[in-house]
Amino acid sequence: MTGLPWLSPPARRGVVHLVGAGPGDPGLLTLRAATLLATADLVAHDRLVPGAILDLLPPTVDRVAVGKPAPGTCGWRQDAISDLLVAEARAGRAVVRLKGGDPFVFGRGGEEAIHCHQAGIEVEVVPGVTSAVAAPAAAGIPVTHRGLASAVAFVTGHEDPDKPASQLDWSGLAAFPGTLVFLMGVHHAARIADQLVLHGRDATTPAAVVRWGTTARQQELITTLGDLAVDVLRSGIASPATIVIGDVVRVRDAIRGHAPVVDALAH
Ligand code: SAH
To answer: Which has the least CB within 10 A, 28, 64, 121, 263?
Structure first.
């Protein structure tokens, strides 16, 4: 990374830079992110940020893994992460808070930014390439496609099991006129599929699961909404994965150049 030209100012002391790391492939870091990573004093990163990106850090940069260590186990509490960012910035360090994908897409980046502002710490937000778009794309699935989907919804598949009722409007989601992209949903694939079909989404709707999208470890599962739960179980595909539900899954082969152009493309 030291060979990169400085295309933007370096990380600043006393500032928290809230940076999206992109979906996994280091090539999908933004140039701003690369500059900040090369010039930070401390990088506080999520568990999902791949080693290939952390390997780019100069050896002089301190790094702290602040994400949850594994699903279901305790990691850093959100307020402890925010407190660390504030304390390090107050100590005059150039702090990068590195989050997978985009910091504001199911990343709790908003909470961290607000916490820092309330403590009087300046925050720079650096958007990232979100896995919600990039993981499907890496599998050849466009989240919108003319004639197939003119809208896309990003939905959390991870709800607090202690919540008395779902916070999601399942009838609204089932009726949504476009692509549904669920993040953090692979453990709850059965519940997601059940709810959508129960509320009227056609069980024959194409569905895909993309794990570790954009990385060398990428895995893809192509199925239908009706078969999603059983195929997830059978294949063993696990987190981190993005679930795509909608007709856009059909153009995958054509986009990859593997098959004749489907009808919808001919319009
Ligand atoms: N802020 C992140 C999302 C954080 S939630 C972003 O914008 O991408 C974490 C979830 O993102 C994971 O459970 C998974 O659903 C998804 N995810 C992250 N990286 C992924 C990848 N490389 N491939 C597929 N899904 C991924």
So the answer is: 263
242 lines ligand 1 (CB under 6 A): yes
List phi, psi (to 5°) of 151. -150, 155
Burial class (CB in 10 A: 0-12, 13-18, 19+), 3: exposed
Give CA angle at 243 (241, 246), nearest 5°. Answer: 160
Residue whose entry in the numeric block shows the structure tokens 């990106």: 53
pLDDT at residue 46, as a whole number: 92
Q: Candidates 29, 143, 183: which one to mutate for ligand 1, based on the most atoms within 8 Å of Cβ?
A: 183
Chain segment 66-81, per-residue pLDDT in tens = 976 665 556 788 899 9
DSSP for 141-193, please give it.
Answer: --S-BTTTBS-EEEEE----TT-SS-SS-HHHHHH-SSEEEEES-GGGHHHHH
163 is catalytic: no
Nearest CA to ligand 1 atom 5: 106
Distance 184 CA to ligand 1 centre (A): 7
